[in-house]
């Protein structure tokens, strides 16, 4: 076990984790932020222009916003560790958190802000062509499909944002959605419909990804009402159908809702275990916005401060 006992550990980063770190850092707690090994900064690291985060009238790139938040947290004394948490032990007063390098850290309080993970289609060919035509990150991989036909699966804001972004690269972008109506905001739908590069296939799902020995080339798309299928040319398939809360590492130690999000006490961020708090998309299955996650990160920090003040008063 790492021999220095922390006052508070934040598991995860993103707007919730970094905001919590800023508040706790300014309060003098010097939090340890275990930000993740692959995508520190959360989903915004895979987001292009963020237009609705207050304070940026011209918008800001998601990675730039997260980098600024991290620097601000570090300015106030937060220590950011680029590792993944593999297990936790919340059974005693000292909370134990073990990372993928085998080190266990102890703390008086823990904030969980691990966000969520992308959902996959689960169809034949998806795994085989992952990284060779199937992607879950438009900003990461869009460039590779310049001048080629691209498809996007989904009906929410994320799917529409990816479709609009991918028009910069693809010869065409086809958005496939299982329903006739979209969950995306009206402004996003209107922008997509006004873009001559984007076309829509509704009431339909992807049944299979096809390709050759090198890359994906097409999709089998089935109409869920008629059952009819069609082959759709696609060099790049971008899947944007939602996310699953990242709670597996908790191993059942916190109470969860049916959808996998962490249960919190009313408007607070207190979980089912005293001294453990949760914030961001790992809790929120409704709003799922950067600004709401940041607000919840603030609340988690204040809840943790209250807990620590009472513990040591």
From TrEMBL:
<keyword id="KW-0560">Oxidoreductase</keyword>
<protein>
    <recommendedName>
        <fullName>Thioredoxin reductase</fullName>
        <ecNumber>1.8.1.9</ecNumber>
    </recommendedName>
</protein>
<dbReference type="InterPro" id="IPR036188">
    <property type="entry name" value="FAD/NAD-bd_sf"/>
</dbReference>
<comment type="similarity">
    <text>Belongs to the class-II pyridine nucleotide-disulfide oxidoreductase family.</text>
</comment>
<feature type="domain" description="FAD/NAD(P)-binding">
    <location>
        <begin position="7"/>
        <end position="297"/>
    </location>
</feature>
<comment type="subunit">
    <text>Homodimer.</text>
</comment>
<dbReference type="InterPro" id="IPR023753">
    <property type="entry name" value="FAD/NAD-binding_dom"/>
</dbReference>
<dbReference type="InterPro" id="IPR008255">
    <property type="entry name" value="Pyr_nucl-diS_OxRdtase_2_AS"/>
</dbReference>
<keyword id="KW-0521">NADP</keyword>
<keyword id="KW-0285">Flavoprotein</keyword>
<dbReference type="Pfam" id="PF07992">
    <property type="entry name" value="Pyr_redox_2"/>
</dbReference>
<dbReference type="GO" id="GO:0019430">
    <property type="term" value="P:removal of superoxide radicals"/>
</dbReference>
<dbReference type="InterPro" id="IPR050097">
    <property type="entry name" value="Ferredoxin-NADP_redctase_2"/>
</dbReference>
<dbReference type="InterPro" id="IPR005982">
    <property type="entry name" value="Thioredox_Rdtase"/>
</dbReference>
<keyword id="KW-0676">Redox-active center</keyword>
<dbReference type="GO" id="GO:0004791">
    <property type="term" value="F:thioredoxin-disulfide reductase (NADPH) activity"/>
</dbReference>
<keyword id="KW-0274">FAD</keyword>
<keyword id="KW-1015">Disulfide bond</keyword>
<dbReference type="GO" id="GO:0005737">
    <property type="term" value="C:cytoplasm"/>
</dbReference>
